[in-house]
Amino acid sequence: xxxxxFSAMLIGSYITTAQAVIDDSGFGDGLLxxxxxxxxxxxxxxxxxxxxxxxxxxxxxxxxxxxxxxxxATYCESISKTVLIPSNKSREVFKFIVTSSINSSNHPQxxxxxxxxxxxxxxxxxxxxxxxxxxxxxxxxxxxxxxEQVSIPIRRYSPxxxxxxxxxxxxxxxxxxxxxxxxxxxxxxxTKNNLAQHITGKLSGDAIDATYSNKLSGGGFSISxxxxxxxxxxQYIENNNIAFVTTDKNxxxxxxxxxxxxxxxxxxxxxxxxxxxxxxxxxxxxFADLFNNSNSDISDASISICLRDYLxxxxxxxxxxxxxxxxxGSNTDPFWGPLVDGLxxxxxxxxxxxxxxxxxxxxxxxxxxxSTVVTFTARCGSVRxxxx
Length: 388
Fold this sequence. Notes:
By secondary structure, this protein is an alpha+beta fold.
């Protein structure tokens, strides 16, 4: 039986006493001491040349000045750093010794040498791949299980099909619509908590002390054995594990799954979730397209009651109001311009503009907000007045 642990638990059959910790200080020296920690920078699927490029980027900084004592040049000591580059797909690990020195012209120069891994380094990288695979497997299992809970597709209506009866009787099907993630703090918190609970539950089943944190620090984790360890950074990882909460094929929330340090559980592995705007879909629209921090025109599209309600309830009057008007009032050529919000002729169609402000948080809990002017078509007079 394999055990994996943080603090005093065992990791793998080859370790007798182990301690694994998360370093939130940029994966630099500190937790285990400069002499006992090797810096590792994981990549998705890099070759030796790409790994070498990463290692050069992480060369130690040498700020020595040969003229620091006056006009006569003095010697500056070189600074060396061992760098490991584990490739998650190929399972290769590249080792480099990167040295920064100051030449006789007082200019910095970097040299890099390839080295074979030691037995201890090989063991630590095997352990890293084991942890990486466990996180990946946990996310895959959760996605399979949650996909079996997909409900009946939420219907979308064209402007001519939509009426107030459907709005009044369509609330139940909107309970799990992804538009709620934008407008309801409770829905947002419950969605992420439930998803994280599924993922950490799978990890805890493998004896990993995993917790969810909405204020994750660091990106990766550190593993040590008998005072010898490696801090593995994820800063060069481009393909995150993605977890899905799916309502139907046109409506799903997608989250990047981050691994780092949970401040409330410093001896464990922290799992963080951030919304993935590329794979999240709302009424078939990619989140990144629908809320692009500029202008989004869905006036000729069919949308659900849920998205329509969100735009009406949360939408504000755009800052850049239109000055001219036009249109014939038909479904294909709706009225548009500054006066449409005052029209009340249900037999005609109007083009409405609403400013939607969407905020998202990164893995450390810092929010970023952006506003998009969304244009949609509805019967004149059926849309609520915008917020000022």
